[in-house]
Amino acid sequence: MFEGSKRSSELREAADRFAEGTLKPIVDQVYAFEDAHKAYERSMSGRAKGKVVISV
């Protein structure tokens, strides 16, 4: 699940920091699109130690 900011200034700042390399997301696990149900289960389990990513 992605939770975005409602403020465009915050989104702009995050995008700038990501481009500069100073914002580094922590990825728990990457799932293939076909395994989206597993990604959802992992995300909802409360055991993920970072972002759960679905590769498209």
Automatic annotation (TrEMBL):
<protein>
    <submittedName>
        <fullName>Alcohol dehydrogenase</fullName>
    </submittedName>
</protein>
<dbReference type="Pfam" id="PF13602">
    <property type="entry name" value="ADH_zinc_N_2"/>
</dbReference>
